[in-house]
Amino acid sequence: MSSTGLEVFDKTLQTTHTWLDEIMEKMGPDRQVAWHLLRAVLHALRDRLPIGLVAHLGAQLPLLVRGAYYDQWNASEEHLKQRSREEFLDRVAAELKGTRPINVVDGVRAVFQVLNHHVEPGQVQKVRDALPEPVRDLWPGGAGAVKSAA
Protein backbone atom coordinates (compact mmCIF):
# COMPACT_ATOMS: atom_id res chain seq x y z
CA MET A 1 0.00 0.00 0.00
CA SER A 2 1.20 3.48 -0.87
CA SER A 3 2.03 5.73 2.06
CA THR A 4 1.50 8.97 0.10
CA GLY A 5 -1.10 7.81 -2.40
CA LEU A 6 1.24 8.53 -5.30
CA GLU A 7 3.77 5.96 -6.46
CA VAL A 8 6.19 8.62 -7.74
CA PHE A 9 6.35 10.22 -4.28
CA ASP A 10 6.76 6.87 -2.54
CA LYS A 11 9.60 5.95 -4.90
CA THR A 12 11.48 9.22 -4.40
CA LEU A 13 11.07 9.01 -0.62
CA GLN A 14 12.37 5.44 -0.63
CA THR A 15 15.33 6.30 -2.86
CA THR A 16 16.16 9.42 -0.86
CA HIS A 17 16.11 7.41 2.38
CA THR A 18 18.50 4.91 0.77
CA TRP A 19 20.89 7.73 -0.12
CA LEU A 20 20.63 9.20 3.39
CA ASP A 21 21.20 5.77 4.95
CA GLU A 22 24.44 5.42 2.97
CA ILE A 23 25.60 8.83 4.16
CA MET A 24 24.69 7.94 7.77
CA GLU A 25 26.79 4.77 7.53
CA LYS A 26 29.84 7.04 7.17
CA MET A 27 28.77 10.11 9.15
CA GLY A 28 26.67 8.79 12.03
CA PRO A 29 23.00 8.09 12.67
CA ASP A 30 21.56 11.57 12.23
CA ARG A 31 19.19 11.83 9.28
CA GLN A 32 18.96 15.63 9.59
CA VAL A 33 22.73 15.99 9.29
CA ALA A 34 22.77 13.54 6.38
CA TRP A 35 20.10 15.56 4.54
CA HIS A 36 21.86 18.88 5.17
CA LEU A 37 25.17 17.37 4.10
CA LEU A 38 23.72 15.92 0.89
CA ARG A 39 22.14 19.26 0.04
CA ALA A 40 25.27 21.27 0.89
CA VAL A 41 27.60 19.08 -1.19
CA LEU A 42 25.21 19.04 -4.14
CA HIS A 43 24.97 22.85 -4.01
CA ALA A 44 28.75 23.25 -3.88
CA LEU A 45 29.09 20.79 -6.75
CA ARG A 46 26.30 22.38 -8.81
CA ASP A 47 27.82 25.82 -8.44
CA ARG A 48 31.15 24.63 -9.85
CA LEU A 49 29.86 22.86 -12.94
CA PRO A 50 29.02 24.26 -16.36
CA ILE A 51 25.26 24.78 -16.76
CA GLY A 52 24.78 21.89 -19.20
CA LEU A 53 26.48 19.47 -16.84
CA VAL A 54 24.37 20.79 -13.94
CA ALA A 55 21.26 19.78 -15.88
CA HIS A 56 22.63 16.36 -16.86
CA LEU A 57 23.53 15.54 -13.27
CA GLY A 58 20.19 16.87 -12.01
CA ALA A 59 18.36 14.51 -14.35
CA GLN A 60 20.04 11.56 -12.63
CA LEU A 61 18.93 12.54 -9.11
CA PRO A 62 15.80 11.27 -7.36
CA LEU A 63 12.92 13.76 -7.61
CA LEU A 64 13.16 14.91 -3.97
CA VAL A 65 16.95 15.25 -4.09
CA ARG A 66 16.67 17.04 -7.44
CA GLY A 67 14.45 19.65 -5.82
CA ALA A 68 17.06 20.29 -3.13
CA TYR A 69 19.80 20.36 -5.77
CA TYR A 70 18.11 23.12 -7.76
CA ASP A 71 16.82 25.04 -4.72
CA GLN A 72 18.04 28.66 -4.83
CA TRP A 73 20.12 28.03 -7.95
CA ASN A 74 21.24 31.05 -9.93
CA ALA A 75 22.08 29.70 -13.38
CA SER A 76 25.35 31.51 -13.94
CA GLU A 77 28.82 30.50 -14.99
CA GLU A 78 30.17 33.09 -12.51
CA HIS A 79 30.63 30.44 -9.81
CA LEU A 80 33.12 28.57 -11.96
CA LYS A 81 35.79 31.02 -10.82
CA GLN A 82 35.67 29.46 -7.34
CA ARG A 83 37.83 26.45 -8.06
CA SER A 84 39.97 25.70 -5.01
CA ARG A 85 39.48 22.82 -2.62
CA GLU A 86 39.31 25.28 0.28
CA GLU A 87 36.52 27.29 -1.40
CA PHE A 88 34.60 24.08 -2.09
CA LEU A 89 34.89 22.86 1.50
CA ASP A 90 34.09 26.32 2.89
CA ARG A 91 30.92 26.40 0.77
CA VAL A 92 29.83 23.05 2.19
CA ALA A 93 30.70 24.07 5.76
CA ALA A 94 28.73 27.32 5.42
CA GLU A 95 25.56 25.37 4.59
CA LEU A 96 26.13 23.07 7.56
CA LYS A 97 26.04 25.84 10.16
CA GLY A 98 23.33 24.98 12.64
CA THR A 99 23.98 21.22 12.49
CA ARG A 100 26.22 19.24 14.76
CA PRO A 101 29.89 19.56 13.88
CA ILE A 102 31.20 17.06 11.35
CA ASN A 103 34.39 16.49 9.43
CA VAL A 104 33.55 18.27 6.18
CA VAL A 105 36.11 16.35 4.11
CA ASP A 106 34.64 13.03 5.28
CA GLY A 107 31.15 14.35 4.59
CA VAL A 108 32.00 15.41 1.05
CA ARG A 109 33.55 12.02 0.39
CA ALA A 110 30.45 10.26 1.76
CA VAL A 111 28.17 12.18 -0.60
CA PHE A 112 30.49 11.62 -3.55
CA GLN A 113 30.44 7.90 -2.75
CA VAL A 114 26.62 7.94 -2.86
CA LEU A 115 26.82 9.57 -6.28
CA ASN A 116 29.26 6.83 -7.34
CA HIS A 117 26.67 4.22 -6.32
CA HIS A 118 23.55 5.77 -7.81
CA VAL A 119 24.48 7.95 -10.77
CA GLU A 120 25.48 6.52 -14.14
CA PRO A 121 29.27 5.99 -14.24
CA GLY A 122 29.67 8.05 -17.41
CA GLN A 123 27.89 10.98 -15.78
CA VAL A 124 30.02 10.66 -12.64
CA GLN A 125 33.13 10.71 -14.80
CA LYS A 126 31.98 13.86 -16.64
CA VAL A 127 31.27 15.61 -13.34
CA ARG A 128 34.62 14.57 -11.87
CA ASP A 129 36.48 15.67 -15.00
CA ALA A 130 34.85 19.12 -14.81
CA LEU A 131 36.22 19.70 -11.30
CA PRO A 132 39.66 21.06 -10.57
CA GLU A 133 42.19 18.44 -9.45
CA PRO A 134 42.17 19.43 -5.73
CA VAL A 135 38.36 18.97 -5.56
CA ARG A 136 38.44 15.88 -7.78
CA ASP A 137 40.85 14.30 -5.29
CA LEU A 138 38.05 14.30 -2.71
CA TRP A 139 36.06 11.90 -4.90
CA PRO A 140 36.55 8.31 -3.67
CA GLY A 141 37.11 5.52 -6.12
CA GLY A 142 38.29 7.66 -8.98
CA ALA A 143 37.44 6.72 -12.52
CA GLY A 144 37.03 3.07 -11.60
CA ALA A 145 34.13 3.64 -9.22
CA VAL A 146 31.39 1.10 -9.94
CA LYS A 147 27.68 1.89 -9.83
CA SER A 148 25.60 -0.41 -7.68
CA ALA A 149 21.94 -1.18 -8.25
CA ALA A 150 19.97 2.04 -7.93
Q: What do you see in this structure?
A:
It is a single chain. This protein has 150 residues and is an all-alpha fold. The chain has a single domain (7-144), classed as Uncharacterized conserved protein DUF2267 (Globin-like, Orthogonal Bundle). It is 63% helix and 0% strand. It is built from 8 helices and no strands.
Key terms for this structure?
about 150 residues; Globin-like; mainly alpha
Topology, pairings included?
Blueprint: H1 7-27, H2 31-46, H3 51-60, H4 63-70, H5 85-95, H6 104-118, H7 121-130, H8 133-136
Helix pairs in contact: 1-2, 1-6, 2-4, 2-5, 2-6, 3-7
Number of distinct helices: 8
Choose one word for the global shape.
Answer: globular
Q: Which residues form runs of ≥5 with pLDDT under 50?
A: 143-150
Task: Name the beta content range.
Answer: under 5%
- Integer-rounded radius of gyration: 15 Å
Compact overview of the structure:
The protein has 150 residues and is an all-alpha fold. Helix content is 63%, strand content 0%.
